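Structure, all three chains, one model.
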Amino acid sequence: MKQEKGQFFSDVFEVVKLIPTGKVTSYGAIARYLGKKNNARMVGWALNGASTEKQLPAHRVVNSQGILTGKAYFGENNEMISKLQLEGIKITKNKIENFKAVFWDPSSELI
DNA sequence: CTTTTGACGGGGG
DNA sequence: TCCCCCGCCAAAA
C-alpha cells in the first residue's frame, strides 16, 4: 500500500470509501472507530489532503451536527451539497435535514 | 526543535 | 440556550 503520510490518513480513507451511497457519517464517528475519541480534527485534516484528489466521498462526511463544515474545500460551488442531494440526502443551508436517518456509524454498521 | 493551527467534540458557565 | 474553553494528534511554518 502507499501510506500517504501517516497511518491514520490511510485508515480514514478506507472508512470514508466504505460509506454507502445516500449515507453520511461524522468526523467523530470515524475517529472513534479508529480508536481516537477526540481526534475528529485529524479526520478532517486527512480528508483535506484528499479533498480534490482521490475518489474519497468526503462529501458524505460532516460534523456531529450534520453540517457540511468542509463544503468550502470541495470547490467554490456547492459541489458537496449537490452530490449529497443527488444521493437522496436532504440539505438546507449546508445542514443535513434527516441527519440521523442517513447517519452511517462505522462503529455500528461496520465491524 | 518549538509553536500554531486545524473540514471537531464534549463539557462547563 | 448560547458562548467559551479544553482536549487530542498531526502537519506545516
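DSSP finds five helices and four strands in chain A.
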